[in-house]
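User: Can you predict the 3D structure for this chain?
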Amino acid sequence: MAWIRGTAVTLFEKRQTGEDAFGAPVYTQVPVRVENVLISPLSAQAAAQTEQLFARKAVYELHIPKGDAHAWEGCRVDFMGRSWRVCTPPLLWQEDEIPLRWKGKVQVERYEQ
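Assistant: Here is the predicted structure, written as structure tokens:
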């Protein structure tokens, strides 16, 4: 029996679908369901630190499940009926050294479309 359980989120991965007339890559957002993501609110201190380092107003921290191979940085993530954007690079740990079911974390800010 698991005491801590994550929730499913929708990650919009950026995939290159071609190039424009100037040779710059063109990306499309592809929705992918990721199970067992742990969501926690940021403390005021962590939010202030993220704002100082990245000039972003982070609200939540998402803990990435072990075995996940998606590219999270800069992607849109939907959960709790809202859209969010990953605003920090992933902080990953060695999977075999962590006793829980998560291998790393990212922070997200509110995403206005």
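The chain has a mean pLDDT of 91. Strands lie at 7-19, 25-41, 58-65, 76-79, 82-86, 91-92, 102-110.
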